[in-house]
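Predict the holo structure. Ligand: zinc ion.
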Amino acid sequence: MNTFTILTQGHSDIINITEHVEQIVAERGTREGVIHLFVPSTTAALTIMEDEAGAKKDLHDALDRLVPAAGEYAHNAKWGDMNGYAHVRSALMKPFLAIPLHEGKMQLGSWQSIVLIDFDNQPRTRQVHVMISSAV
Ligand code: ZN
């Protein structure tokens, strides 16, 4: 397993981590398989999207409608850390991804980027674990 670290600003910060993953894939030299990514956090998530300002704004707006930061959350009432929305967003968007690897390259579409989203209400240091299952 390989791990890299990302510093985030929190507040649904969307960070493109594609190049980090590509570097690990190149170093490992696996040609065929599946790349598994995992962020060990209950207030962050991994997804794939176009790394474009409009698309990122649209995702932020959609999350604000679906899971508003200022909503009422039982987690906030119990713990007082006021990031109940971040836990819900993380659970809905998931902390893991799987990407096919073929002829040594991730099979991402032209506009697909791998992104880490940090929903917490403060800057955080995040670890992303990368495991490659070889198909050969
Ligand atoms: Zn919390």
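DSSP finds four helices and eight strands in the chain. The chain has a mean pLDDT of 97.
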